[in-house]
Target: Ribonuclease H protein
Amino acid sequence: MHVSDYRPIACCNVLYKAITKIIVKRMQRVLPLLIDYSQNAFVPGRSITDNILLAQELLAGYNQKRLPLRCTIKVDIQKAYDSVEWDFLLEVLKLFNFPLQFIVLINQCVSTASFSVSLNGSNHGFFKGGRGLRQGDPMSPYLFVLVMEIWNALLRFRVKNAAEFQPLFDKVDARLAGWNHLNLSYAGRLQLIKAVLSTLHMYWASAFILPKGVLKNLEKKMRKFLWYGSTGSGNAKVAWERICKPKEEGGLGLHSLITTNQALMLKQLWRIIQNDGTSIWVDWIQHYRLRHSTIWTFNEH
Model:
């Protein structure tokens, strides 16, 4: 264990959060004008899903032998918020022509924090820092986006097959393992499926057409948990298709994961049809895939 493996815990009182919330409201008005539309995280009116969809399109067929040699680099930032130098942040704010008084307010909010080391439950001393944005501070995500705009670094990744969904399976298995010690009733397990298990895949399902094998595997885990808990086994007492029907039709009101994925993909299709000019992914699809035709006349071949 190294000291760099630890990170400070930020304690922000109500008054501080109220002040930074006011600053954030001011920043949100100009952020879409300052941040390039290729960066979508925390920018009002944009969706980070666009970057996921665009990365998927750019990497389609990337490994074909007939193409020239190439490589892809996936970049991640370790302890992203903690890596922001305060002096650099102030220079970035000046570069974006924020008013001096506004920069002074932000500097006071960011740099006035004191840190203490807790040893065996006792706090020892206070010292000043030189970098880092506090987790839980309403202002931190927006300041980080402004800093990242200097490098304009995009997070790109591709999902091709079921094996690459293992992190999703691991997340579901971890939740199920955490419920082993709970003496849950049938109704309790049903509620956990609705509130937790059926939502874990939503981030993936909103960006990709998930393989049916992946969705069937997830539904299998839910079905087993519903009837027998985390550790039991046996055959389902009612078909899953029946369970996923509305309550008025004799079901339990759960949603089929396949149907949910299809509905979310239709939402992306509607964005392409609507094309209001605010999405980098839609613009790319229109220019390179549809070539300014319509989606109704598009022929992939």
